[in-house]
Amino acid sequence: MSDVPPEGPDIDRNVAVNLRQFREQRGVSQDELAQRMSERGFGFTQATIWKIERGQRPVKISEAVALGKALGLSSWTHLTEEPALTRRLSDLQDANRRANEAYTETKAAAARFFEAQVNVVVAVREAQDAGLDTERWNGWVNIPAERAVIEARVEWNREDDILERREKEVEAVLAALRQHGYPLIQPEDVEFGGGRP
C-alpha cells in the first residue's frame, strides 16, 4: 500500500472552485464560457459549466487547457492549484489588468488634451487675427497635461490644506521637469497648417 494520498479528488475540487473564481472575476457568464468552449471544439453548454463548478463533472486535461485559454489564464494549471493561492493569483492578475487599463486610459486622455490644446491655440490665433481680445481664452494653453497626473497623485494623498499643498507640489514638480529639460508643450511650439504640433 502507498502512503501517498490520491490527488484526483483534490484536483477535481480545485478545478471546480477555481473555474468559478476565474470566470466570475473576469465577468464571464456560464453561458459565455460554454460558448467559448464550443468555439474551441468542445460541446459545452451552460449546464456543463454548472456541473463542473459544482464538482459533479470532472474535467479532462484537454478541456482544462481549453478552459484556461477561454478565460485568458497564463497557464491552464492555475485551475488545478489550491484555491487560496489561486484567489491571490486572480487578485494579482485583476489588479494588474486594472492598472494597465487605467494607464492606457490616462495616455489616451493626455493625447486628447494635447489635441485640445492645439485646437485652443489655433482658435485663439484665428480669433486674434479677426481682431478679438483672446486673453481670457488661452488659459489651457499653458497647462501641461502632466499637471493632471500630478494633481491626481497629490489629491490621492489628501491632507487638510490640500489646495495650497497641491499647488506648491505641482509647481515644484513642473519646475523640476523644466529644469531638467523635459519638453512641456508651449504655445510657440505649435505650427500652423496641419493643425498639430
Automatic annotation (TrEMBL):
SUPFAM superfamilies: lambda repressor-like DNA-binding domains. InterPro entries: Cro/C1-type_HTH (IPR001387), Lambda_DNA-bd_dom_sf (IPR010982). One of its GO terms (molecular function) is DNA binding. PROSITE patterns: HTH_CROC1. This is Helix-turn-helix domain-containing protein. Residues 19-79 form the HTH cro/C1-type domain.
